[in-house]
User: Which sequence fits this backbone?
């Protein structure tokens, strides 16, 4: 089992990413900086949100689901380019 040292963890680590993004102020600042927008208020944040569409279809798991200013943001951390992002984003 490969265990990373606490000191070596960065925002690309799933645990650290989820903990940072569930903090309203940090999440708001990251979204604003990445998208060059202003957000008045974040109403809801959920990490690892699962969406089940149909009983016979694959479910969807979002890293961080955010509702803010009557919009929904799906925030994903990608650390490896598997060249399938377009298909996965549909």
Assistant:
């Amino acid at each position: 089992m490969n265990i990373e040292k606490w000191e070596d963890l960065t925002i690309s680590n799933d645990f650290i990413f989820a903990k940072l993004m569930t903090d309203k102020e940090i999440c708001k600042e990251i979204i604003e900086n990445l998208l060059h927008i202003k957000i008045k208020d974040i109403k809801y944040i959920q990490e690892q949100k699962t969406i089940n569409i149909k009983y016979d279809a694959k479910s969807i798991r979002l890293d961080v689901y955010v509702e803010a200013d009557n919009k929904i943001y799906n925030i994903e951390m990608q650390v490896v380019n598997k060249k399938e992002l377009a298909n996965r984003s549909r």
About this structure: The mean pLDDT is 82. The radius of gyration is 15 Å.
